[in-house]
Amino acid sequence: MRKSLLFSVFFLLVFSAPVFAQKVKESYVIGFYNLENLFDTVHDEGKNDYQFLPEGQNKWTEAKYRKKLHNMATVIKAMKEENHHWHTVLGVSEIENRHVLEDLVSQPEILEANYQIVHYDGPDRRGVDCALLYRPSEFTVIESLTIPFTFYGVALNNPMSPEERQQFRTRDILMVRGLIAGEMFAFYVLHLPSRLGGKGGDLRARGAEIVYEHAQRLERRFPGVKIVVMGDMNDDPFNESMAQLLHGQKTMEAMTEKDFYNPYWTMLEAGYGSNAYRGVWSIFDQELVNYNLAHAPEGTLKLLPLIHRRRQTFYGRVFSKPFMTVQEGQYKGTPFRTFSGGNFVGGYSDHYPTYLIVGK
């Protein structure tokens, strides 16, 4: 049963401090953060970024842009302070271009992490992409590519005409393959189509299907590869896209070798949330892991359990702090975002970041 907004906020703010459930020799943080419209102040040809220009609707000035960069870096640093370790890999969404990422990783709060960037310009009409930040001292990139959205799968029952499908544009899916501690990992970063207007369920299902089919081919090419699918899914773990098309399971025990484990399903049921809409919490921001990582052989990198208070064990973390949360008014207890009611309020993001930890 879905928990009330008040209980959920109390739970995730008070009972969220992660502690390893076992002694760990080495560990690596893998996470995702929707940066909520990280745009620069310059128009990109062919992109609908006009509201994020100095003369645009948001009056997006250099000062506001610099404040946004500082805020994003502050959150990333706060996660490092909690874990005593920078993210090895951090997937991000709602970024305009490589330039904003270069500005972000150069912020003094996170400069020492030496984050490198994997990014491709995508076809989204609003001009937002997915990308991957990584530490080259811990993750060696072997291959990266983008996977376009196509309409040729079985998950679609969409009434769009051929012409409308031809005109449809959404974010590409980013795949990055490489090595952590000599073991092969592949990361998929995605931002599935929006829920605006109550639409897009089959589009999100199709996006999940595209990822799943690609991941299955990758496993056949590289037996034993450990896969993490991360992103703003615009769906909860129990929705069709995640539970059926991406084969996300609520427990590791329920997995077959062709499934993914979604640690945020039980967390959502326990009252956690990464985003809220009209008083209801969701966890759209997820990381799912394949069988090879969830059931890794002894002595290799595997998904580590995180113990939260009240003796409940979870394998994921929704990261929220009071400074990232609205403290008063109509939206009290929800993520402190950049704009509210059309006004610049100088917050962080309308999503909390999430992460998991692998180690041995």
Question: Quick recap of the structure?
Answer:
The protein is an alpha+beta fold.
Give structural notes:
The chain is of the alpha+beta class and 360 residues long. It is 23% helix and 28% strand. It has one domain (5-359): Endonuclease/exonuclease/phosphatase (Deoxyribonuclease I, Chain A, 4-Layer Sandwich), CATH 3.60.10.10. Strands 2, 3, 4, 5, 15, 18 and 21 form a seven-stranded mixed β-sheet that branches. It has a seven-stranded mixed β-sheet with strand order 6-7-8-9-14-11-10. A three-stranded antiparallel β-sheet has the order 1-16-17. Strand 8 (183-191), helix 5 (201-221) and strand 9 (226-232) form a beta-alpha-beta unit. It is globular. The protein starts with a helix and ends with a strand.
CATH class: Alpha Beta
Question: Which percent band covers the strand fraction?
Answer: 25-35%
Return Rg in Å: 19 Å
Main sheet properties: 7 strands, mixed
Q: What is the helical fraction, as a range of percent?
A: 10-25%
H-E order: HEEHEHEEEHEEHEHEEHEEEHEEEEEEE
Give the CATH superfamily. Endonuclease/exonuclease/phosphatase
User: How many domains make up the coordinates?
Assistant: 1
Count of helical stretches:
8
Shape: globular
Distance between the termini: 35 Å
CATH architecture: 4-Layer Sandwich
* Low-pLDDT residue spans: 1-15
* Quantity of strands, as a count: 21
In CATH, the topology is named Deoxyribonuclease I, Chain A
On the 0 to 100 scale, the average pLDDT is: 91
